[in-house]
Amino acid sequence: MKRTVEEAVLPALVALLVAAVVGDVLILSFGQNPGSVYRLLIDGTWGNAYGFGQVLYKTTTLTFTGLAVAVGLRAGLFNIGAESQLAAGGFLAALVGLVLPMGLPALVTLPAFLVAAAAGGAFVGGIPGVLKARFGAHEVITTIMLNFIVLALLNYLTAAHLKVEGTLHTTEIHAGALPRLSSMIDAFHGSAANVVLLLAFVTAAAVAWFLFRTRRGFELRATGLQPAAAEYGGVNVGGVWWRTMALSGALAGIGGLNYVLGYKHYYEESFASGAGFLGIAVAIVGRNHPVGVVLAAFVFATMSQGGLAVNAVVPKQIVDVLQAVVIIAVAASVPEVRRLARRTA
Amino acid sequence: MIVLAFLAQTLRIAIPYLFAASGGVISERSGLIGLGLEGYMLGGAFCGAVASYYSGSPWVGLLGAIAGGAALALLYAVTAIRFRADQVVVGIAVNLLVTGATRFFLRLAFHSSANSPRVPGFGAEQSGTGLAALASNPLIWLGIIAVGVMAWLIYRTPYGLRVRAAGEHPEAALSVGVPVDRVRYVAAALSGMLAALGGAYLALDQHQFSAEMTAGRGFIALAATIFGRWDPFRAALACLFFAAAETLQIQLQGAQIIPSQFVEMIPYALTIVALAGVVGRAIPPAALGKPAAE
Amino acid sequence: MSIVESSASAPLAIRLADIYKSFGPVNANRGASIQVACGEIHALVGENGAGKSTLMRILGGMYAPDSGTMEVNGRDVTGWTTAQAIDAGVGMVHQHFMLVPTLTVAENMMLGREPTSGGQIDSGRVVGEVTELSRRTGLAVHPERKVADLSVGEAQRVEILKTLYRGAKILILDEPTAVLSPPEIDELWRVLRGMRERGETIVLITHKLDEVMEISDTITVMRQGQTIAQLTTRETTPAAIAKAMVGRDVQLAMHYAETARPRADLPSAPLLDVRDLVVDGPRRASAVNGVSFAIAPGEILGIAGVEGNGQTELLDALAGLRPVRAGTITVARRDITRLPVKSRGDAGLSHIPEDRHARGLILDYTIAENLILGQQHRFTTGVRLDNDAITDNARRQIEAFDIRPAVPSVPARALSGGNQQKIVIAREMSRAFQVLLAAQPTRGVDVGAIEFIHARLREARDAGKAILLVSADLAEVLALSDRIAVMYGGKFVVVLDRRDASEGVLGPYMTGAEHAA
Which of the listed CATH numbers 1.10.3470.10, 3.40.30.10, 3.30.750.210, 2.20.28.120 matches domain B2-276? Predict the structure, then answer.
């Protein structure tokens, strides 16, 4: 819980400032004018409906992975495995989609997809949780290692058994595909934004409610803040650990629905492509609060889409660099801000 | 002679791991988590290729790689030590930074976001698989020597003793006047330089830099570090083992006995097993990841 | 208190004057002064928290004083570093060993000043020097063994040898015998006497008066950050030292209030029954070594004793935070020995932990949230927390215990130590309990609040509850307890009725002086 709003927001502001400076330097090195590049970025993201739709689409996935990491961090756990949990969730949802008969109403299929995606992510997330609770194995390394293992496994399953010849993806799912926003609002025509975006907002609200309004959420946060005091308060710390990792994995897994059901309607190898790692950035910048996560997801999504928009003038990787700069700057300024706050208190 | 070809291939694959794992060992032994190895390696590959291209000499390329790796590692070290930032976060961020920055500068310098032009390198003109080609590449020798040097450094020199103390019980080291922060900065710089040499090997051997050419090798090196229980020789053995598995899989490719993806998993699965303590627990340095007392 | 000047003819090895040192709100040293002559064994005594370790760490260079001066052998050394102190021959052996467990004895010895030949460590030379030094001083060590494999006694010998290896002529030892057996203690005295004969100076930080009488030449007594007295050992007595150590300011004398119920009326079935309890401590030794006692309803049993004699482990085991190796614990005739923490709370056990910062409070949680810690399952409607009930509960307790600021939504971190403690007390005493474990209940609490807390404890006792009180403040134990046990070395060495107890009677048991010749 933040002591003051300043302590929560200041690092993010410092980070954006630093990123702006670095961005200027990089843009100038390309012989371009920073002002016009930034304007191009804004035009390509918030300036037109298609671009904005793309931003919303990317915000959706990042919200889920950001929530996943944030929930983990609230319990004192560092989940680096969002990438593979996201993929596993999408994969399992795609499998369910392949076996469901056509013509079932969305009321039946949507819960099925949700459960499948959550289960896939929860399983992949739960394993490191159990290893920590049982053996004390540090979750940072186990989640990183499991990332590679799971992604390799999914690649194998797709390549060897499920893919459509000549592609890297599974056959198309017709049962219960989710509608795109463009079907509801004409302006979004062509963009990938879909109703999973609404699911993302609902999930963020649900996570906030869980963390701050329920007894289990109270115990989860206590475990993250002071495990010794939580133990004194009757909490089963090991149990909190593995259950939180499973929950975290489930949240990331549900994010897989954005691509698999809302966009392409199939599972494709490497569809996650970095959304898991960016989820870490989103959680850190969003200070582990669901509202902050949604805002940070929006900012990072804007940057990602903005990269595509400026690609003709300045390489889109400038955005990757700036995102990394933001992460480093936030990580460096959080302890510093806290130290300065304690000094002056 | 199939055996010789197998060994040669294994060694070629292992060299980047050997460099980066040596760097991982010194870094983690001093208390700094080695998550940035992938980034240092990729950065080293890029700087090595660029320096070699503009100077015309692969040796200058090596210097460029070392400089790039050291700079990245010191960036990580400053945020972790001076600013007490979370080492995991910064390590991952460094990797993302380098991935993006290399593509960016690739386009800036060479107008392609995928490959650099051909650069002067080491080894035979075509990527030879023979032992002769191998022996002529100085980086092969350097990589092997690096393991021995690292072991000597850690176990036989005063600096190495201080590194081990800093990673296990920094307060004890501080109480006898050892400058723990400085010890860690040096360890970070060494890890950056070594991992960068691993990347430079890749670029200079292929005579080209391609985007993301390290493809996770830094993480395999980290896995080897952990699986080798933070000992340079054991980590090197782990590197060779992982490389051998890869070689085996390549040579058996046609036979389709084990799918390549399962061979890919081996280093990571073994690391998890080591951490969970199924066959003797791998216990990291006690102060790993924690900033030293104020 | 009589102030006796140390012998004026011997030069001063150490002179600290008017040292002030604070860590945030904690004033560890408040104008402390100490003088030690060369070739002297000097004891620095006081209760836990008196400021002894801090003062010596300042001397050793680990901290710089906020104000005051330091002289070593006549030279001004105020605010020097550890490295400088070591170079000047001042060596410190800490209470918690500063040894790297994974390295060998020899490696720990040479850390920071490794001899080299050809760029690499000359291990042979180190082993040779260590062996020679070990022989000369009589401190037996094995240079090639890993520190993690050493016995406690050997580890301490290594720590002492470490300072001698660096040429220490002034040796500071912080509670060196806390972890030693009697024969190892005799060994240590032999070594220290040998050093004194060679003209070296020793400062011994301790709270054990039998040892002070046996080994020291002069004594400084500290209390609450100040130096209270300087004494010459052969001219004083353990009783006088104990009184200086544990006495409180005269105007705050506490009075024992006899229990409201005549003793004969007390029902016989105890509310808390502990039999033959054995609890492990660090280094595989037993911290609690076969303790048995019972507390009847309407009774306060106080455990007196200096910290470190097993009280922490005893209370942790009773609360469910530490496993029990042997023995049983019964609350209201229910065996709770294997029950988890939450079930013990439901069975009627309340616990005021000794470390409110680590265990008792979650500093970033609000007052209201901290007031339900441990009982959060009672403040729910379904899966949701009942915020109205939580706030009501908070308002009631804030008022009943006068917690300030009286705002339920303030984070606990913002409160003073005394008010933080009041949160813990309010929480643990407002729930329905049969047995209350109270560890250091008034530590860091201001004077006015102390009386308030004592009144609440007496109220609970009069209402028929059983209270186990552990306090390092002897006056508090005497003011509140109906019966008093003294814990020393993991055992109850004596259990007395309050009427038969006093500082003079208990002091010797607490400090082991009972065992002195």
Answer: 1.10.3470.10
